[in-house]
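Interim report, section 4.2 (structural modelling).
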Amino acid sequence: MIDHRPMSLAPLAILRIIFGTVMVISCARFAWLGWIREQYIDPVVHFPYAGFEWVVSLGDPGMYVLFGVMALAAAAVALGAWYRISSVVFFLSFTYVELIDKTYYLNHYYFVSIAAFLFCLVPAHRMLSIDVMRKPELRADTVPRWVLDVFKLQIAIVYVFAGIAKINHAWLIDAMPLRIWLPAQSDLPVIGPLMTLWWLPWVFSWAGMLFDCCVPFLLWNRRTRPYAYAAVIVFHVITGMMFQIGVFPLVMIAMTLVFFEPGASQPQHGLSSVLVRMPRPVTIILAAHLAVQILLPWRFLLYPGDLPWTEDGYRFSWRVMLMEKAGTATFTVWDGATGRGGIVDNSEFLNAHQEKQMSMQPDMIVQYAGFLRDEFTRRGVPRPRVTADVWVTLNGAPARRMVDPQRDLSRDEIGLGPSTWVLAR
Amino acid sequence: MIRAHFVLGVVIVLMTSSCADNSAPVDSNFDRAGMLTAVADRIIIPSYDSASAAAAHLATKCQGALSDQTLDATELVELREAAGALMRRTQQIASFNFGPAEGDFGTLMQEIGTFPCDTAGVASRIASADTLLTDFRRDTRGLAALDYLLWGSESDLQITALFSGTQGTGRRAYLRAVAIRLRAELEYVNTQWRSTYRSTFISRSGTDAGSSVSLLFNELNKSFELLKNFKLGLPLGLRAGQTSTEPTKIEAYYSGLAYELVGLHFRSIKEIWSGRLSDGTVIPSFRDYLLAVVNGPRLVEDTEAQLARIDAAYATVSQNNMGELIRTNPQALVALHTEMQKLTRFIKSEMSSLLGISITYSSGDGD
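Predicted structure of the assembly:
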């Protein structure tokens, strides 16, 4: 299983260059679209992950500086300049931003964080890099083959879990949510008119599931690889056209290049090749990482309740574009002294995106209730209680109440435990 | 090959079995561009046209009535009629606050429809002959200023007196300036719609952020939230942190038109959603769009039932003086607010979910 044969370092170095470049583009795009301000500076409330409440927005100009540092680090990664430092700086700055507010959680950001983490641990800078120009003794030609296998395995984990997540009644039998999403895309160039065909959602649902489950294996196999990579391009270009998923298609098309590798190592330019040996602690960390990656998506099994409804164990599991969920959440703040209740205007505290995400995700509902309790305490409401009437629709079904409208949600706490405040669907 | 046939077979069997309990599946090819065209030509442009004409009429009336040094009782009645007509017709455009309606000092409805009136601000502007009106003090001009200037005193005699003589010069100039600005604002947006924006609006017939369907949907909801939260909730003291009712914060407090305006505002929202116009014509609408998508007919049924409950709650209030009603017996108004609150999920989260409409204005990435 673990292949210690030396293999050319070139694929890893090239992957590093492509990854760094895509991340520079991603940072520039984020700034260009005004999202640094819109997502991290303007909002008065953020939704931190449990245990990461200390990760806060750095405000203006702090967030701009942070993105500047991130972009510089990404460029340095691409160039292989001061790589040991720049790769770590990129991983930390990117992950910090992602941890500020989970309403912006996206599986592809999570994937970028993981890839950045892996790049911190591998010697991707020892060829085709400024570091080698600075210190020629760094130059190496080969790595043990398993180092690249780690990247392949990571990508395989993403696809296979995304595929497994699609094996359910709603996706395969009801063709939901694609039966909602496809007709809405009828204005696309070229393929638009097809989107309204009644049977297309079933074709896309099954094709998507089969693609996700199979493509890593087809990429691994040399004979099927070119066809599999063509499928990767087609799949990601089509989903990129249909859904607002930003640079994700580009990231995946770029990263799956890792499956293309030269055969066994060939000694280069007549010199005896230099093999990079992997330090034992790094090997252990990588093994542990992969073990976590394989186990984490199954953690939903530890929770009672209905996964798409409670979303306990939903994130960090490659459940990508899996359901159409939306809610309306009306919060009431009750004066602890007089018992008088007042309705909250969510737009006073949340932007449209935050409100949309909060209104259907139980942990965010409780976090927001906690914020409202603190905010209205500050405004002079004595011992406020916070209740919410939350109606959530899942895959086009009639909306159901998500929490008991009498319950004081400001007393609930989020953590690793199940979301006990959620009513059964 | 055998395996491929097997999979195909399974797919077909599963599909037919899942469809068996539904009616036969049909392609859902609702004509969004057609809906946008109808909404533009039958609702938006005629509404801007009508509001713009009312503003022009008011400006002309002001010029006439205020040309000499006196404002007599007949002229006051005429001005009030013109101003009231404008307030009513403006409810029809309250949900189209996008495109050319986005101006230098906020949107058109913020510019002309901000309430309650800052009466002290109006007084100080009159005192200092400040008629430029190009700043962010939107609550000193627009419809709220008309309401205050034409109705905001104890008696009609007092009002005509305030507008007359040399001490009324500033007030006359200010009312004129307010009316002229209203005319200019509405004329501008109306012209833009008639010249270039109509085709822009119709051409963006997707459902992504920035598409006209998304704009129309989002603005419809914002308009409804404004009606519910600020024309009813806030004056009724129903907002978080309020400790009492605030009856003076209704729209058109002085003229007593508030409740009628609430009704007109709601009617316009209903028309946009249902496509059933007050003159009896029916045009393609969100309602028809919903009927064309999976699970849509059920939502149409729920939405219509809730709309009817709101209409019923509205009709139970017979007294027109809303400010007085909030002071003395707000229960019926609270009930109306409650019914409106229940509508939100139907026209916001459930509708956007079924239609696949982007709910945000800038396109965030999703997954």
